[in-house]
Amino acid sequence: DEFPWNFSSIPLLVGLFIGFTPSKINKYFLSYFATFGLLAGIWGMFNPNTFVPTVGLNVYHMLCYGAFIALAVLIFYSQSIRIEIGTFLKALPVFALMISVAISFNEIAHVISPNHKISLFELSRHDESITPVYSWLHNLFYSSDNVVGILEFVYCVLFYIVLVSAFAILPLLVMIIIKKK
Asked: How far apart are CA 27 and CA 34, in angstroms?
C-alpha cells in the first residue's frame, strides 16, 4: 500500500478532519475512527506484513496502531459517540468515501503511469492484491492480461466492503452486549 492511503493509515487522515469539522459531521468521523479505526489499529498490530527490517519503522507503526486502539476506546469511553448500531451506520459513509477515493486514485494512477504499481487499499483492478481472503476472490478474477473486468471488480469491492465492515462492527457489537448486562 502507498502511505497515507491505506486502510491502516486512514485514521490519521480522519483524525485531522475531526478537529476541523462541524459537530454533526464530526460524529461521522468519530464513528469511523471508533469502528474502522479500531479495526485498523488491531489489524496493524497483529498483521505480520506490517513489520519491516527497520526497527524504527516498526516502533513507529506500533505506536500509531496502539494510538488508534487507545483513541477508539477513549472515544467510546468519553461518550463522544453512542454504543449503538447507529454509530456503525455513521461510519459507513466515511468508509465508502475513502474506498471511492482510493479506487479513483488507483485508476488515475494507472492511466498516467501503467508501469507503476499503485494499489491504494489494495483495491486495484490492475495489480494482484495481498489482502487476506479478499485476495483469493480478486486473484480468481485476475486474468492473463493482468486486469480484472469491471463487473468482477465491482464484486470484489463489494465483498471487500462487506468483509471489512463485518470485522469493524464486531467490537461494537461486543460493547453493546456488555452495556446491556
From this structure: 10
Average pLDDT over residues 110-138: 77
Q: Amino acid identity, residue 6?
A: N
Q: CA 112, CA 107: separation in Å to the nearest integer?
A: 9
Distance CA 55, CA 179 (A): 40
Model pLDDT, residue 73: 92
Query: Are the C-beta atoms of residues 68 and 47 closer than 8 Å to each other?
Result: no
Peptide bond between residue 4 and the one before it cis (omega within 30 degrees of 0): yes
- What is the DSSP code (8-state) at residue 117? -
pLDDT at 160: 87
Task: Indicate yes or no: pTM above 0.85.
Answer: no
Instruction: Decide: 164 and 7 in contact? Cβ < 8 Å.
Output: yes
Instruction: Judge contact between 61 and 44, C-beta under 8 A.
Output: yes
Look-up: residue for cell 464484486? Answer: 155
Cell of 3: 502511505
Return the closest-CA partner of residue 91 out of 44, 39, 54, 127. Answer: 39
Q: Pick 107 or 117 by higher pLDDT.
A: 107
Using alpha carbons only, give the angle 92, 27, 20 rounded to the nearest 5 degrees. Answer: 110
pLDDT digits (tens, 9 = 90+) for 7-46: 666 777 777 777 788 888 899 999 998 999 899 889 888 8
